[in-house]
């Protein structure tokens, strides 16, 4: 019997061709998609630009914070209680500042991960002015590009909310921090009620300085006013009963208390030698301060002296010790054994 041939009708030929084209299309589409993904992963961000946007965001949020407080339109409610039992208030100042700060950063750098203390679904069209402040232009070089996927931005739209509700506005700040591969490299702390903004880019420059001298025998230690009693005992166990302990609101304020402030701001800020926190604390509270201290040769570590990773989870479980201009290791060696997760 003669072998049978296979004949395709014109319709069959067309279907076969379409199938071939489809296979080729999907193969090429996969390649193109992979290349686009790789291109997106290679996107870089100039840290000087990101510093300028961070300053603008902190000041934009600060204007919202001040307006709400000046208008007495806080509309305060509670987010719940901390592990220590302290109330966590939420105000319109927190929310309106968050909307401006978060959206400005995301609108400018959509590929960068941004974490904020607050959350809502309100979209703001805030965009970067493209202006770089003169002191940043003078002290920071451009072209310091890093991969976008290595960046984590932490923002605190209103630090010291409890004090804000009590009209203790000297403690209030808005903060932005940029971490690269988990290390804090940009810190911005803005005081809405004085208009002063502290900034730093590690290895590049800052508008802040360490003071000329610090006392360590014993140091003057600044701590959280919301549970100063427990910290006072801890500090005096470490440095002696004569150690001065200052209770203050806001992590941003406490870091500024370690630094040399402009003469116009000095009277408004307590002066301390060491900042200490002995319970769990969130990274949006402390990252900006860590970057400022690092830029000035200082340190912020856990109570055990460990570096804090500013990526991933927002919770720092190890407490903290922050200093500049002193022997940080010597401070740590005096601390009693303490587990922040158990207190």
UniProtKB/TrEMBL annotation:
Record: residues binding Mg(2+): 117, 156, 158-159, 285
Keywords linked to the UniProt accession: Hydrolase, Magnesium, Membrane, Metal-binding, Transmembrane, Transmembrane helix
Annotated region described as Disordered, given as residue ranges: 69-90
The UniProt record lists the keyword DNA damage: no
Record field: catalytic activity: a myo-inositol phosphate + H2O = myo-inositol + phosphate
Annotated localization: Membrane
Pathway: Polyol metabolism; myo-inositol biosynthesis; myo-inositol from D-glucose 6-phosphate: step 2/2
Biased segments, Basic and acidic residues type: 69-86
EC number: 3.1.3.25
Membrane protein topology class: Single-pass membrane protein
A cellular-component GO term for this protein: Golgi apparatus
GO term, biological process aspect, one: phosphatidylinositol phosphate biosynthetic process
One of the record's GO molecular function terms: inositol monophosphate phosphatase activity
Signal peptide extent: none
UniProt-listed InterPro entries: CysQ/Inositol_MonoPase (IPR050725), Inositol_monophosphatase-like (IPR000760), Inositol_monophosphatase_CS (IPR020550)
Pfam family, one: Inositol_P
Cofactor: Mg(2+)
Keyword rRNA-binding: no
PANTHER family: 3'(2'),5'-BISPHOSPHATE NUCLEOTIDASE 1, INOSITOL MONOPHOSPHATASE 3
Sequence similarity: Belongs to the inositol monophosphatase superfamily.
Protein name listed in UniProt: inositol-phosphate phosphatase
Protein's gene: bpnt2
